[in-house]
Amino acid sequence: MYSDVVLLKIIFNSTFIVVKMEYIITKYLNVSRNCKLLISIGAH
Asked: In angstroms, how far is the first alpha carbon of the chain from the final one?
């Protein structure tokens, strides 16, 4: 029983970390895409 709880905690923590990483990466990609758009608009 105790080991199951620990396992669930570990799974939950790693899932949370992965989701956080994906959020940060997506945010970064969106920012860089917006910068490229601004640069391309400014270049014209």
From this structure: 65
Per-residue pLDDT tens digits of the chain, which is 44 residues long: 678 999 999 999 999 999 999 999 999 999 999 889 888 888 76
- Residue ranges per structural domain of the chain: 14-44
Q: 10 Å Cβ neighbour count for 36?
A: 10
| pTM of this structure | 0.57
Q: Centre a 10 Å sphere on the Cβ of residue 6 and count the other Cβ atoms it contains.
A: 10
